[in-house]
């Protein structure tokens, strides 16, 4: 295997909003971003402004996202959780607060039995994020 495992999040018409949201919240930069209209790639007319591909990165942390031109099935975002290993208690709190805005708290951010501060949030796009911060011993 080459390199890191990179989550690739799929949206339906919310890709641009999601890219902006994650870029601002996570403090990451857009490495590459292309819309369907900018590529020689078949798409329905209503998908011209949808994201064909977007790559966001900060150091070793990366996510990719795109819009699908196919209508999603219900509950298509179940079964995978994205975990961020936070660098500080403050970062965990900031990300927790940002992700829960217009989202849903699944587990309050709190001290856990394994010695970490941990919380779980479903963001406004339906993706579940685990936030974990452990002080180095």
Name the helix and strand elements from N-terminus to C-terminus, one letter apiece: EHEEEEHEEE
* Number of domain units: 2
The number of helical segments is 2
Average pLDDT reading: 90
Estimate the strand proportion: 35-45%
Task: Indicate the structural class.
Answer: alpha/beta
Major beta-sheet overview: 4 strands, mixed
Q: Secondary-structure blueprint of this entry?
A:
Layout: E1 8-11, H1 15-26, E2 29-35, E3 51-58, E4 61-67, E5 81-85, H2 89-100, E6 104-111, E7 116-122, E8 128-134
Parallel strand pairs: 1-4, 5-8
Antiparallel strand pairs: 2-3, 3-4, 6-7, 7-8
Describe, in plain words, how this protein is organized in 3D:
With 137 residues, this protein is α/β, with parallel strands linked by helices. It folds into two domains: 8-67, Roll (2,3-Dihydroxybiphenyl 1,2-Dioxygenase, domain 1); 81-134, 2,3-Dihydroxybiphenyl 1,2-Dioxygenase, domain 1, CATH 3.10.180.10. It has helices spanning 15-26, 89-100, and strands at residues 8-11, 29-35, 51-58, 61-67, 81-85, 104-111, 116-122, 128-134. The strands form two sheets. Strands 1-4-3-2 form a four-stranded mixed sheet, covered by helices on one side. The longest helix has 12 residues, at 15-26. The two termini are 31 Å apart.
In short:
The chain contains 2 helices and 8 strands.
Question: Which descriptors apply to this entry?
Answer:
137 residues; alpha/beta; 2,3-Dihydroxybiphenyl 1,2-Dioxygenase, domain 1; four-stranded mixed beta sheet; 39% strand; elongated
């Amino acid at each position: 295997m080459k390199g890191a495992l990179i989550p690739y999040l799929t949206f339906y018409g919310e890709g641009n909003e999601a890219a902006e949201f994650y870029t601002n919240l996570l403090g990451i930069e857009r490495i590459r971003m292309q819309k369907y209209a900018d590529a020689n790639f078949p798409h329905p007319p209503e998908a011209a402004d949808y994201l064909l591909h977007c790559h966001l990165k900060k150091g070793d942390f990366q996510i990719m996202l795109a819009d699908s031109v196919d209508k999603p099935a219900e509950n298509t975002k179940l079964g995978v959780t994205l975990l961020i290993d936070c660098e500080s208690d403050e970062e965990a709190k900031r990300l927790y607060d940002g992700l829960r805005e217009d989202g849903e708290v699944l587990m309050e951010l709190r001290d856990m039995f394994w010695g970490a501060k941990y919380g779980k949030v479903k963001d406004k796009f339906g993706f579940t994020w685990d936030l974990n911060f452990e002080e180095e011993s």
